[in-house]
Design brief:
Elements (H helix, E strand, L loop, with lengths): L5 E7 L12 E6 L5 H9 L17 E6 L3 E5 L10 H17 L3 E9 L6 H12 L4 E6 L6 H15 L9 E3 L8 H14 L1
Length: 198
């Protein structure tokens, strides 16, 4: 798939105000500072479609981007270590949970994992929650360029081993780098295949 158009549509914290179009949606979510905005910009070939920041937790709303006038890329707030108050985090959790529970247009979630880090409890628990709620998801390992091939393989093997403690089979996963663009074609092809089945 070639992304020919990518346009910001709306930001909000109320699921009922999300676009009424019946277009498929792909939600991107991960811990703060996982490289989500950089990944979105890499996928869409736009330098500043999603706002990148040195300060984790910049995304604080549900952001809809219309891609090729055919599907929505949804940028969700990061969870974990954003420098926001506990009360703000509770608000995040409320509307993120509401989005996943109520948004019928959602066809797949992408959970972003920093490939440099060992499995984190918050990520594992979130994926288990998606599974229990029967929400299809795939994993995107980010920042692969920050590790040597050997170290990357060790990290991925460890992660897969940990996930297989909870899952009968490994969820679909992608290895990406926003710097080199690796993983982009595979990820877009996956979205294209799902769209083709709808």
């Amino acid at each position: 798939m070639k992304i020919k158009s990518a346009a910001f549509v709306i930001s909000n914290s109320d699921v009922s105000k999300c676009p009424k179009d019946q277009l498929p949606e792909y939600a991107f979510i991960g811990r703060s500072n996982v490289g989500k905005s950089s990944l979105i910009n890499m996928l869409t070939d736009r330098k500043s479609l999603a706002k990148t920041s040195g300060r984790p937790g910049k995304t604080q709303l549900i952001n809809h981007f219309l891609i090729n006038k055919a599907w929505f890329l949804v940028d969700l707030p990061g969870y974990g270590y954003a420098r926001v108050s506990k009360s703000t985090k509770k608000v995040f959790q409320r509307f993120i949970t509401a989005y996943f529970a109520k948004r019928e247009q959602l066809v797949n979630a992408f959970v972003l994992i920093d490939s440099r880090h060992n499995p984190q409890k918050v990520d594992l628990e979130f994926m288990q929650w998606l599974g229990k709620n029967q929400i299809p998801f795939a994993i995107i390992f980010t920042k692969a360029d920050k590790l040597s091939e050997t170290k990357l393989k060790i990290q991925l093997d460890n992660y897969i081993a940990e996930l297989l403690n909870y899952w009968e089979e490994m969820p679909k996963y992608f290895i990406t780098s926003s710097t080199s663009g690796s993983g982009k074609d595979e990820l877009l092809q996956y979205i294209d295949e799902i769209n083709g089945q709808l």
